[in-house]
Design goal:
Blueprint: E1 3-4, E2 7-10, H1 15-23, H2 40-47, E3 50-51, E4 54-57, H3 64-69, H4 71-92, E5 97-101, H5 125-138, E6 145-149, E7 152-153, E8 162-164, E9 168-169, E10 172-173, H6 174-186, E11 191-194, E12 201-202, H7 203-210, E13 215-217, E14 230-231, H8 248-251
Parallel strand pairs: 1-3, 2-4, 4-5, 5-6, 6-11, 7-10, 8-13, 9-14
Antiparallel strand pairs: 9-12
Helix pairs in contact: 1-6, 2-4, 4-5
Length: about 250
């Protein structure tokens, strides 16, 4: 049975996916059980039953440690999963806009304010899989695609007791990013775009907006997979977006 729909969102249970669902309340946002993106046949069957003009692909394995420990699983989800969606859309719904949510961390992190003109150089396996996902999209032959690079967090209390004072980004809250993405899509932008905040903040400064009691730490205290030190972005295509600091009281 064919169902006429407008927007399909993968990863709807994630921080960004939940905010996008609020913006697109008539969207479909299947659970992992309903749509396992690593199952090529299942993806093709699911896409064959819907008629969409936008597919916003947020689903990914995002834990840096987990991606290092399970490289096969990370590749299967973040790269092959993206390929399965792209192939299905190309075959069954070629006029659909494919929106791929990437990351600011496709860059090495040794320089501030990377733009769309800079060459990516991932520092860990998670970031590599996100860049490979970008390449799947750009080399797919899709008529319409948009790759969004950003760094964001939900507008709520910081989940860790500490945050880095020497790791930087042009952060947005997840609801800010969802609104910004809708704006960019409504503009008809295509290709790769950096959707980023106006302010370059340390992770500690960003965390303090919602969690004033957060404790500082430095990268010298960190023990784990390599991390980019500077995730700040700039766009040569669009203006930056304001970070909604006024939500701090509501988030505490």
């Amino acid at each position: 049975m064919n169902v006429s729909l407008t927007v399909l969102i993968t990863g709807g249970s994630g921080n960004l996916g939940r905010e996008l669902i609020k913006i697109y309340p008539d969207s479909i946002h299947p659970s992992h059980k309903e749509l396992d993106i690593t199952n090529e046949k299942g993806v093709l069957e699911y896409v064959s039953k819907v008629s969409i003009d936008k597919l916003i692909h947020c689903a990914a394995l995002t834990s840096i440690r987990q991606c290092e420990e399970d490289k096969e699983g990370a590749y299967r989800t973040n790269v092959e999963g993206t390929r399965n969606l792209v192939r299905s859309v190309s075959r069954l719904n070629p006029g659909c806009l494919f929106v791929y949510v990437s990351t600011a961390s496709v860059f090495y992190g040794d320089k501030a304010y990377r733009t769309e003109l800079d060459i990516p150089y991932p520092k860990n396996f998670y970031n590599l899989t996100k860049l490979l996902g970008e390449l799947v999209v750009t080399e797919s032959g899709l008529a319409k695609y948009l790759i969004v690079r950003s760094n964001f967090a939900p507008c709520r209390k910081w989940v860790y007791p500490k945050a880095f004072t020497d790791r930087f980004g042009t952060y947005l809250f997840a609801d800010d990013l969802a609104l910004a993405m809708r704006h960019v899509m409504d503009q008809g932008l295509r290709g790769t775009v950096h959707v980023c905040g106006e302010e370059r903040l340390s992770m500690f400064e960003f965390a303090k907006i919602t969690t004033p009691e957060i404790s500082p730490m430095t990268m010298s205290e960190y023990d784990g997979p390599p991390l980019p030190m500077d995730m700040s972005l700039k766009s040569v295509r669009i203006p930056s977006f304001p970070l909604s600091r006024e939500r701090r009281e509501a988030a505490k």
